[in-house]
# Entry
Amino acid sequence: MGEDRYHRQTLIPDIGAQGRRRLADASVLLVGCGALGSVSADLLARAGIGRIRLVDRDIVELTNLQRQVLYAESDLGAPKATAARGRLGAVNSEIDIESFVEDVDASNIERLAEGCTVIIDGLDNFETRYLVNDLAVSTDRPWFYGGAVGTTGMSAVVIPGRTPCLRCTFPEPPAAGTSPTCDTAGVLGPVIHMVAAHQAMQAIKLLSGNTDAVDFRLHSFDAWGNTRHAMDHGLPRTDCPCCGEHDFPWLDGRRESSTSVLCGRDAVQIKPAAAGDSIELQALAERLAEHGDFHCSDEVLRGRLHEVDVELTVFADGRALIKGASTPEQARTVYARYIGT
# Structure
């Protein structure tokens, strides 16, 4: 079955049997299983990447189904990483698929990336991308950047020592509120596929041993305006704080925040200092019963608080998504009042 499955792919001269074996031996960390991540994961699983490690902090919501191809209506409310693992396992039972329902941060990224050859960016926030960049450069590990909003997309390959890193091109993340988001600009499904396909294509080239075929240019496009640009952004900058000076402030936690506003969700994530410690979701559900309607599984508790009219999602590691909170401060207040610090 395995030989027939990849027959059309193996016919590509630059892949062949040797490239096929290299893909089977590869391990990929896919950070974020939303729109970009779900498309990339699907393409890589079908290509026979030997091990795919999925990490995502979020759950499946109805608005995700417009563009996040791994999920169905039956997955609503389930952790994305768990649902994605199930779908990919049904697509290709011959590869190893691991899932982690975690928020990637400086405390866990090295553990999550252990043993992985490359990193695929499926993220929806800049802070974690800069963390991934720090890790990639510090460990000499390639990663594949991608972003999409509205009808525009951008993608690039970062190979430490050979290409500019994220901070070479964008020294600092954009200031809060200065960039369009899914909330303010929306996003079209085909744009997601265009970006993720480029990410997956370059990853397949690299992992199959065809590094010289990798497109090292920074790509950007507007699918509605029918414009596309590809910029050769040169070599790593010697004065880059990351590449040149080996300063990794996101990786060592100096640039880490504990509150995140989530793209396209009208929600704030609260991650307590002790995130990672297991909490009893059923016991919490019982305590919250008088304050709203809640349902829980082993992995997630969901419900709506009547007093403050917000939707609360709590994960077993203590993280919470508070939908409807107008500010991070309000979200922290809700967390302290109903969950505890």
